[in-house]
Amino acid sequence: MTEQQLSGRLMTLAYSGSVCMMAAYTLWLYAMGDYRDLLIPMFVTLLLLTALLMHYSQDLAPVIPRIILLASTYVVVLAAMYYQPSTPLIWLGLPIAASFLLLPLWGALFLNVVCSPIWWLLPSANDITPSVVLGYSALILLSALPPWEHARRRALLRATDPNDSDCNAYHIDTLKERLHNEYQRAAMLNKRLAVLVLHLPQLDMAEEQFGQRAQLALLGTLCSEVNSRCRDHDLLGRAGNATFWLVLPDTSESGALLVRERLQRALSRCVLVETGHLDTRISACLPCQGESFERYIQRLEVRAQALVDA
Q: pTM (2 decimals)?
């Protein structure tokens, strides 16, 4: 399963769970006889249901339902603390967590800083002590640590400066877009197209045993060897944590096999201090006659998984 598919399923679960919880909260208020507080939960339930339907739409940007979900979280917590001052302050952590899950790091930080004065204007503000303010600030900083560390690692692993030791490779989304363009071009002009699937089994081990520098050294070596032995219009992209696709336009099966042998021989001669000889598994995958692009992508992913399991 790709990262994009996993993210889509998690967001579907988030939207569906939000609708169910908000509907249950509305029914609970109705059962308790709190008819005055029913309006906002009912409205938010409809908003979340709309966000769920928009999530399934292919024509809308995914940021729109995420904004609706985040805004609904703030509205519900704000209304609960306004109409029920006895609501525990621990619920302040819900919009904070949602902002860091649904927004980029700096956007979430900015939103929490801007919205902080709103909480002090609520009727429950009398219960806010300096220790609560300190805990609120600490929660924001702690929530910012995971996305900050994730962004730092991705910046290291996706840097594109060929003079650095990082990997000069396309990200998977950009790679698929470029591959789609080449796929359409080959189909329209009756050109050949080949893709080499590369797997570095030492990549995960290098980071775990020797740290980030060893991993970047492996990535830099791979990219350097590929760039020096391939054409300028060949495309190297990172399709997984340790899996890469090398797109070879205007290349037949025999040409792809020659490139594979040339790369296999060159990479096997590379020796790194921490990991020794570079171990690389390479397989060629060509589109079939009349095959759809989506089916071809699936075959590439299956081929990559077979190299991982080998």
A: 0.48
